[in-house]
Amino acid sequence: MADADELLKIGSDGTVRLTSTDSARALAPHAGSYRLALCLPGLVVLSRTGKDAETTRGRVVMAGEIISRMTMMEVLNVIATAQWGGELTVVGPEATRTLSLDQGALKHARSDAPDDRLGQVLYRAGVLDQAALKSLLKRVTETGRLGQLLVKEGTLDQAQLFEHLRSQAEHIFFASLLVASGHYVFAQPPPGSEAEGMTTIHVPIQGLLMEGVQRVDEMALFRGLIPDDSMIPSRVVDAPDAKKLTAMHEKLLRVIDGRRSIDQIARGTGLGTFQTVKGLYHLLQKKQITLRANRHVEPARVAELVSSFNEVMQDIFFAVATYGGVAQTRSTLEAWLEGSGYAPFFGPGVDEFGCVDAGAVTQALAAVDQPNPLAALHQALHEMAAFALFSATTTLPRDQEISLARDVNRRLEHIRIT
């Protein structure tokens, strides 16, 4: 998939043209002859033709749009019940994931999301810290993969590596279930097109679906008490005697020291995020622990977030500058900041280009009373950009206003903190 917002454009006369070099790069691997297989409002499907069609084109069994978090659950249930074999590709806003399925089981999975990589799976499991992972990744080559390096160095044995690779595939499966918007395609690839170098597993889809539903429902419940994994649990002094504590609860109590965050505990114990949050939820209910917000925010994350928003703000201010509206827009924005309650986030406010200083914002966040300062900053920046766009409407012609709004809103959709 290309990153271009428009891969191609169809003119009113039916002609088709590419709109960027990204378009060309995305389509180049699919060179050949095609026929128009389906033409519906919002959807055009091309099907390969010619003498090589049968050997290069897989059979598309199902395809469609993901309209809610239940879409992929329902699609996978159909595939599992019918015991179809093939590859399910799930294209979401942030990543493309492919699940290889056969005989009602997950055989392997791949993803282009950084969080789905084996290194991150091992990091979350507590096998590697970030420094060790970074060092190992520098040595990874086509012939020396991460898993092989870990076995060679004795960090893992073959059985342990296999279990982590299985965990990685399951993680990709669960991440695919949670995609709430995008598209999916279930196809039977042509012979000989199987992905090379993938570890084959055999995990029944129905079992994964049941666990997936449970995880989604339970995590929604847990998040009512534990909204953020950066929070820090502490043991309660003279806590009441708790009955029916499991071995997992005891393990968590031993590592809770009032300094480590939930994320750090999840990695240190090797329990993973879901099991750690689940255990802490029950310890909270049994009044064995308390939680406090971790107000430490990494300057690098603040700088990255602020930089993304500054680019958007610059686009707005450059647009109004063409029509002499910079002073008015800045004045209106400064007044809004004072009235909105967000002024403490931004220190001296915005400069002549509508930007805020990342260093000043980092310092300001230390004094802001918020359980999750980064999430609060993200919200504040979104609202500031929205108001700046609104205030620009008094300066811009209608066509320029529409064009700017479309561009700004599209870019804001891609600025996330999770």
Question: What report would you give on this structure?
Answer:
The protein is of the alpha+beta class. It has three domains: 59-213, no CATH class; 223-292, Arc Repressor Mutant, subunit A (Orthogonal Bundle), CATH 1.10.10; 299-413, no CATH class. The chain has 16 helices and twelve strands. The strands form four sheets. It has a six-stranded antiparallel beta sheet with strand order 5-9-6-7-8-10. Strands 1-2 form a two-stranded antiparallel sheet. A two-stranded antiparallel sheet has the order 3-4. The radius of gyration is 25 Å and the shape is flat. The protein starts with 7 loop residues before the first strand and ends in a 5-residue tail after the last helix.
Question: What helical percentage do the residues reach?
Answer: 40-55%
Largest sheet: 6 strands, antiparallel
Strand content: 15-25%
Strand order of the largest sheet: 5-9-6-7-8-10
Structural class: alpha+beta
The shape is flat
Mean pLDDT: 85
Radius of gyration: 25 Å
Which segments are poorly predicted (pLDDT under 50) over 5 or more consecutive residues? none
The H/E string reads EEHEEHEHEEEHHHHEEHEHHHEHHHHH
In angstroms, what separates the terminal alpha carbons?
A: 22 Å
Q: Count the domains.
A: 3
| Extended strand count | 12
| Helix count from the secondary structure assignment | 16
